[in-house]
Amino acid sequence: MGSLVKWASDWTSTRLHKIDAALFEQACLGNQKAAHQLVNQLSPKANALAWRLLGDAAEAQDVVQEGFIKLFQTKQFRGSSSLATYFHVVVSRLCLDRLRARKVFRHETNEDLGDVVEDENQNPSQDLQRAQSVSAVQRALMLMNARQRVILTLWAYQEASISEIAEMMGLEINAAHQLLHRAKINLRQKLEGLGYES
Fold first, then answer.
1. Domains located in the chain, CATH noted
2. Pick from 137, 145, 110, 144: which is nearest to 196 by CA?
3. How many CB atoms lie within 10 A of CB 7?
């Protein structure tokens, strides 16, 4: 039964990759409808990724827009992975470039978390609790170095596998495992330093 479920999952994933690749090809040929569909499809997770890495909603939106320009101008996507994974690589690298260019990291985020964290099934009390938790983790992430912040964000929030993360970051799989392990320890220490119990 397990192998049947895996086959169905792989088949669905491959089919979705082909649909995305076809949409991308149409968008590159000037089909505005396909381009808008891809932008709408890829933007939410890409914005969340960029926000978590940069800690600034406006800068995150700028990076995602820059990522779309790069995606459609270079036309380098070949369909070997999902378009979402490929686009996350583009956005992650743009974020890393910005983080490396900064002389001082901002440690506070004053963003409206309601724009970033949305769940229609939450009640107001749960919304507040979740926003506080997200805020604490985000503050801790902003105290970490860029590579650790990237790997934690990809692993925890983008649900990327360790092999996908290694590919995105240009690391060997073993090095990605080690970096993720160190990042988890560092995050726990940062949260404890901010007064949050693990």
1. 2-193 (1.20.140.160)
2. 137
3. 10
* Phi, psi for 117 (deg, rounded to 5): -110, 110
Structure token pair of residue 30: 């000037």
| Residue 39 · residue 102 · CB < 8 Å | no
> d(Cα 60, Cα 167) in Å, to the nearest integer?
22
Is the distance from CB of 42 to CB of 84 less than 8 angstroms?
A: yes
**Residue 118 in 3-state DSSP?**
coil
Q: Which segments of 29-101 does DSSP mark as H helices, in order? A: 32-54, 57-74, 83-101
Question: Does this model's pTM top 0.90?
Answer: no
Cα–Cα separations (whole angstroms), residue 105 to 48, 55, 146: 19, 9, 10
Q: Position of tokens 């692993």? A: 155
pLDDT in tens, the chain (198 residues): 555 444 344 434 455 567 777 888 888 888 899 899 999 999 999 999 898 888 889 999 999 999 999 988 887 776 666 788 888 888 988 988 888 787 544 433 333 333 333 444 445 445 444 444 557 777 888 888 888 888 888 888 777 788 888 877 888 999 999 999 999 999 989 888 877 765
Structure tokens at 191: 């949260």
Q: Which residues contact 177 (CB under 8 A, 6 or more apart)?
A: 162
